[in-house]
Amino acid sequence: MSEVTTPEGLRKFRFGAGGEGNKEEGGARKFVQLAQTAEEYGYDTFAVPDHLGNQVGPLAALGALSQATDRIRLGTSVLANGWRHPALLAKEANTIDVLSKGRLELGIGAGWMKEEFDKAGLEFEKPGVRIRRLDEALTILDGLMRGQTVDFEGEFYTINGLQGTPRPRQGPRPPIAVGGGGPRMLALAAKHANIISVATGTTAEGKLRLSDMTMEKTLERVDRIRQAAGDRFSEIELNWTIATIVITDDREATAEMALQAIDQGYPPNIAKDVELTVEDVLQSPYLAFGTFEQIADQIREVRRRTTMSYVGVFPTQLDAFAPVLALLKGE
To answer: At a CB cut-off of 8 Å and minimum separation 6, what does 47 contact?
Structure first.
């Protein structure tokens, strides 16, 4: 995937939508329609998460979407590495790339939902072990997804003269995306990934840290990537996902309401580890409150300050964000 930049040297915006194909979204048929709608709106990618709960299987779903869509790129956000051997995953990924005529973006991470590992009877290893395992998996995927013959002997995987087939449509291989918020994951992503999803950190209970949603903490995470990547940094596309979009004529009042909700424990997946101001909320890359024009300006400012340019939205906000996408498309 060639790098495209603006006159200021920043990457052009790309926009990602997604879906889970669950009952709340209307099931499998609506899932396909959702991807087709995202394509019509002009989203650049459509990604499927990887959970054992109420959603479609991501790889089978992308196989279906490879035939049901024409232009939109297809991704995973993100696969849990501990659930699939990299040799098997590489074959599935290359097959999807061939079937989609070169539209795959493979997102993969270490896996973080202990409850799902427990329910499946799979060991939820310590963070350091999961990160070392992912490091090996990414090394193997890199070779096999290029169609190369791979020999590898590591702590977790052994590959003996296996050739990656079928050869992918994209060269030298489909882009790999890695998501993370902690220092070790960001350093690993900087080593291997073409795309890095700059995520908020989580507590031991799996809650999102409120402090990590600030612009200040986001800049710190980007700086970690810059330091770890070295000369590679200019080749890496940075992504983030907006958690909440509220279309309103009064940004400040909406931000105040959001702070009040957090004080009362909503949403429950947020760990309040810091007191934020209204200005903190309005500058956060992960929260978008305002008119379509104000949100577009906010996203431009996020890119200017952080160099992040690949914007993701959740399935429920695909329609709400479409007018903002139209304002920013091509910039």
So the answer is: 16, 17, 18, 74, 75, 76, 77, 105, 107, 312
